Structures are given as C-alpha cells and as structure tokens.
C-alpha cells in the first residue's frame, strides 16, 4: 500500500472465519468470512482514511460494506464461472443488500473479483470499446446488473487482471464499478502489473477526487517510556530529586489554579528532560532490510519463472526465521516485566499474538424486524427501545422489581 500510495485496498479470498477488525501496523483491516477458511473478503484502510470510517457491515463471505467519509465501499468476491446460477443470483442479492445500507447522496463503489468477462464490445455507459476477449455468461449478468442499477465499469481498457495456473491464458475479471452520475470523479482506473503481490491477480487501481470538509489536525503530543520509572532505579531517583526540588519552589503559591498550572508545567518539563521518548512503531516489526531487498528483487524477476520461484522460497524461509527471532525477543521482555509492569506485559502479549477483534455486527444494529441500522440516529433510537434494567436482571438471574 505504501509503495503504491494507496489509501484503501480491497481484498478477496482472505479465508478468515467470522467477521471483525484487526490492526496491521498503522493499517486497519475489516474482514467478513464464513465458518470455514474459504472465500472471505476484506478492506484495508490506511491511518488517515480509517479516521473517517463511520460504520461497516459484514454481509457474507463474499460481500462486505464500509462507509469511510461520504463513500460507500462494497468489496466482493463472486462465484467462479462454473458455479450454479442460484449461487450467482444470491451473490447479486447480497450486493443489493449492502447497497441498501448506503444512503443517498453518498457515492457507492463496488469493487473486487467478479469472475466475469465483459468483452471488447461497447455497451453504452457501462463498458468501453477497448476491452479484452469475448463476453461470457457471468459477464452478461454483470453488465445487466450495472444497467439496472445505473453503474459503470471504470477499468475496461486492454489491461488483464488475472492469469490462469501455468499462465495458459490471461483475462480481465476484476473490476471497479461506480454510479454513472459520479463517474466524473474518476481520474484514472487501470491495472498495475508492477504492483507485485504474489498472486495470480493483478492489482487494479482507481484514483478519484471528491471534495471533503477540511478537518483541523489535532495537536500531537510526544509519548514517553514511563515504564522505565518502574525498572530503572537511577532514573527513578533522578526524577524524584527533580520533583522534590521543584516542589520546594512552589510552597509559597496560595492560589489553587496557579499552583496546579505550575505543577503541571514543572512535571512536563522534568519529563521532557529526563524520560526517553517512545519510538514510532514500524509497520512490520520483524521484517528487516534483507527481506525487503529480496522482495524488491522478486518483484523485478516475475517474468523469470525459475528465479522468481527460488526468490519466493528464500523469502518465506527468511520471513519465518526473522519472525521467530522477533517473537523470542518479545517473550524475553515479557518474562523480565512479569512481576514489575503488568500493563506493559499484557500490551506485549497482545502485540505478539496479533489478536483479532471479532464482532458480528460492528457499527450497526438490527431493528425488531431484522432490518440493519447503520446511521447514528437510527442506532441511538434503537438502543433507547431496550429495557436495560430488565436485560441486566435477566443476565444475573434476578426477577424484575415490582
């Protein structure tokens, strides 16, 4: 994402069970899967875009919907071409369901692996004249859906997005769709063969421009390694002496507000001078420069099959070794802090385990009739309908008071 300067990245075939969100370095991934490690979709947001993420809803293991800023993004993974028609129709019903959660006039973008070929013949306002190959049955169904719902396919130029096993054939089956009335927001939409991601699919990138309300940037305050005060005796004594000396100069202040202000400023000043600042977290804590260099070499060697396979195997070995070494180092730190700093210890355990935050319905709630509410006002109104006292008493096994 960083190399290609992407804000939002749609993912298909995630193959995770359940639904939830997970922090991946500075990025945030939301995902929707089934009961088995098959299919699955997700959307990865960078640190800037995720701040505007209002709500999102896992529809199925083929469809997930999210609302960053004033957009509605639907990431999909369609059934393969030889799937039953019933499964295909269910897939489009799930897209309709996700689309219904995005209120007008928000822009809706549907993107992902559609497993459909739309061909090289122009279809007015839907498909351009510079496509690839011949339209198939799944492609006709996609075009029909676009016509009924007033969507257009943004990336139909001669750029393939998928190659079959053994590279026997190449086709375009991955698309980014947008409502026709908002298509002028699209600046570019194309495949990027150079954005190597070790997949039989090629990244499809779309650049669009919308006018958003300008937000004031919150002031960033430095973070300090305060846990050192529990383990470093010299630093602890140094801080204690500095605080004691400063306190002696504040004894003559009688006004409470003035005393508080002076104490706060003094403590901040002492901390700035004596306590080291925390380092910014790296995106991948265990990936080193050697691995990054090998990845770059692999990307440049994608057309040399033997060299590519050798580099790919070597990278996996290096990654496993580096990750194991990093985990061992973290475990040693956890053991050292076991009886000193429980907060630090639990934070480290969470960091090492990479625990996913699972939830069945994040940012949304169902009404009495099963309709999904995603807007803030609707959610608040729905919560107001609950008898919280009755729910609490039921939870602890008590009876309602008369």
UniProtKB/TrEMBL annotation:
Designated name of the protein: Craniofacial development protein 2-like
Q: Name one Pfam family in it.
A: Exo_endo_phos_2
- Output the lineage of the source organism: Eukaryota, Metazoa, Spiralia, Lophotrochozoa, Mollusca
Q: Which CDD domains match?
A: L1-EN
Alphabetized GO MF terms = catalytic activity
Q: Which InterPro entries match?
A: Endo/exonu/phosph_ase_sf (IPR036691), Endo/exonuclease/phosphatase (IPR005135), Swc5/CFDP1/2 (IPR027124)
Q: Which SUPFAM superfamilies match?
A: DNase I-like
Give the originating organism.
Plakobranchus ocellatus
Domain Endonuclease/exonuclease/phosphatase residues, every copy: 73-204
């Amino acid at each position: 994402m960083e190399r290609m300067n992407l804000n939002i990245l749609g993912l298909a075939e995630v193959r995770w069970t359940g639904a939830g969100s997970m922090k991946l370095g500075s990025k945030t991934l939301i995902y929707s899967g089934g009961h088995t490690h098959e299919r699955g979709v997700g959307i990865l947001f960078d640190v800037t875009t995720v701040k505007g993420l209002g709500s999102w809803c896992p529809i199925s293991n083929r469809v997930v919907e999210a609302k960053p800023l004033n957009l509605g993004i639907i990431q999909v993974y369609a059934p393969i071409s030889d799937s039953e028609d019933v499964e295909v129709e269910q897939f489009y019903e799930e897209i309709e369901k996700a689309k219904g959660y995005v209120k007008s006039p928000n822009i809706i973008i549907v993107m992902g692996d559609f497993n459909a070929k739309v061909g090289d013949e122009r279809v007015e306002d839907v498909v351009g004249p510079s496509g690839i190959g011949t339209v198939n049955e799944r492609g006709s169904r996609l075009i029909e859906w676009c016509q009924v719902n007033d969507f257009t396919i943004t990336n139909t130029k001669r750029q393939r997005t998928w190659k079959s096993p053994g590279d026997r054939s190449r086709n375009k089956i991955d698309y980014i769709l947008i409502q026709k009335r908002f298509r002028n927001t699209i600046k570019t939409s194309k495949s990027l063969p150079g954005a190597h991601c070790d997949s039989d699919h090629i990244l499809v990138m779309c650049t669009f421009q919308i006018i958003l309300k300008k937000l004031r940037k919150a002031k960033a305050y430095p973070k300090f390694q305060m846990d050192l005060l529990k383990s470093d005796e010299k630093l602890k004594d140094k801080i204690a002496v500095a605080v004691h000396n400063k306190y002696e100069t504040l004894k003559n202040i009688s006004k409470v507000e003035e005393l508080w202000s002076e104490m706060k400023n003094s403590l901040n000043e002492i901390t700035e001078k004596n306590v080291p600042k925390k380092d910014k977290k790296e995106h991948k804590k265990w990936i080193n420069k050697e691995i990054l260099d090998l990845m770059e070499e692999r990307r440049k060697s994608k057309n040399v099959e033997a060299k590519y396979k050798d580099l790919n195997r070597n990278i996996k070995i290096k990654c496993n070794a580096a990750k194991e070494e990093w985990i061992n180092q973290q475990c040693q730190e956890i053991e050292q802090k076991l009886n000193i700093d429980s907060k630090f210890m639990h934070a480290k355990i969470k960091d090492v385990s990479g625990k996913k935050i699972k939830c069945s319905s994040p940012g949304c709630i169902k009404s009495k009739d099963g309709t999904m509410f995603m807007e803030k006002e609707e959610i608040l109104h729905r919560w107001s309908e609950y008898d919280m006292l009755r729910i609490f008493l039921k939870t602890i096994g008590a009876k309602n008071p008369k």
